[in-house]
Amino acid sequence: MNTLAQQLLKNFDDLPETEQQAILLRRRFANAIEILKRAIDFDVPPLTDEDLVLNRTIFSIRRAINRIRYHRKRVNSR
Fold first, then answer.
1. What whole-number distance in Å separates Cα of residue 73 and Cα of residue 58?
2. Rounded CA gap, 65 and 58, in Å?
3. Against a cut of 0.85, is the pTM above it?
4. Is residue 24 packed enough to be buried (19+ CB in 10 Å), middle (13-18) or exposed (0-12)?
């Protein structure tokens, strides 16, 4: 091992454990991002305005249904 690698390892070992963990976590996150970039097919066509509106409408309907179910459970549990 050359002196630069030894110095890097020594500097890392001298860091507080919380900083060592933060560095390792950032490295893992960077690796995960790179894997996702390679795994995802980026040739997906862009969404149209209609797609976005439809998606928002479906979300709103689902939220309303969940609210109704929640309130029914509360009323029935009394």
1. 23
2. 11
3. no
4. exposed
pLDDT digits (tens, 9 = 90+) for 27-45: 888 888 877 777 776 666 7
Integer CA distances (angstroms), 62 to 25, 27, 66, 75, in order: 36, 38, 6, 20
- What whole-number distance in Å separates Cα of residue 13 and Cα of residue 26? 17
Contacts of 20 (CB under 8 A, 6+ apart): 12
pLDDT of residue 43: 66
11 to 23, 65, 69, 74: CA distances (angstroms) = 12, 56, 57, 58
